[in-house]
Amino acid sequence: MTRKIAFDAIENFRDFGDYAVGDRRLKRGVLFRAAHQSEATEADLEAMRALGLSVIVDLRRPNERERSPSRRWEGFDGLVIQNDMGHEEEDPWHVFIKTSDLTAQAFTDYMVGYYRDAPYVDRHVDLYSRYFHALSETDGAVLIHCAAGKDRTGILAALTHHLAGVHEDDILNDFLLTNDAERFERRAPQFAAVVEELTGRRPTLEAATTALGVEAHYLETAFAAIHAQHGTLDAYLEDVLGVDAARRAAIAHRILD
Question: Where are the alpha helices (DSSP H) in the chain?
Fold first, then answer.
């Protein structure tokens, strides 16, 4: 299947269902992931309406939502999951951009540290937990997104896949679909220009591309951090995110054919 869904002005939009789970399969058209929708065209909004979304999970920080407010179609009445935790804190990404040497290695090192900490950041725990609760309790399709739809979104999609029983190779391959050469070619110069405007320094295209992409070891770092603290992903899902056996069963009923 073609997982990527083309929109005029929404990046990295894709269906992360339709993977084999033993003799069953994740449903198609139920699980979606994307970047933000602040620049969505009217045609984009109509296309989103047609997906039957009942839940949208906005994983962005408050300052990101203020800077790039989400667009919704007229009559949208679905559940929106977001929070204002960390509103008083300066965005760590902006702090990094301002203080970094902006090399490709610096971006890689930042992301490794980010993934190591992300599963236990309070605001992520709140959002991830509420997502799984909604997934077990509501009908209709679900969209999870952050700013670029790659890191916070990538971890949550991978946890969803694990919970459903998707093979680890498929989990990783789905995570890596963010690495779209056409998008990198188009977006890297734009990203470099934004950084230059913010800092007076311009990263190389290699560094900008690194910032826009993901690497297998990023997700592996997040999962290793979970294993170090909780032993298994399943223990993390239950003890930290509140996904007990009953909720797992409800989610499986909802997203598996």
Answer: 42-50, 62-67, 92-99, 104-117, 122-137, 152-164, 168-176, 181-199, 205-212, 216-230, 233-239, 245-255
- DSSP class of residue 214 equals -
Geometric angle at alpha carbon 23, from 19 and 25, rounded to 5°: 30
Select from 33, 1, 34, 30 the least CA-distant residue to 17. 30
d(CA 232, CA 119): 13
- Length of the chain in terms of residues written: 257
Read off the pTM.
0.96
**Which CATH number fits the domain 14-255, given the four candidates 3.40.50.300, 3.40.50.1390, 3.90.190.10, 3.30.2000.10?**
3.90.190.10
Q: Do strands 79-81 and 53-58 pair parallel, antiparallel, or not at all (unpaired)? A: parallel
Give per-residue pLDDT as tens, 124-183: 999 999 999 999 999 999 999 999 999 999 999 999 999 999 999 999 999 999 999 999
Structure tokens given for 132: 């799984």
Q: Tens digit of pLDDT for each residue in 35-75?
A: 999 999 999 999 999 999 999 999 999 999 999 999 999 99
Largest CA distance in the chain: 55
Alpha-carbon span 155 to 150, nearest angstrom:
8
DSSP 8-state code for residue 88: T
Output the CA–CA distances (angstroms, integers) from residue 74 to 37, 77, 163, 214, in the order listed: 14, 9, 34, 34
8 Å CB contact between 131 and 81: yes
Asked if residues 113 and 224 have their Cβ atoms less than 8 Å apart, the reply is: no
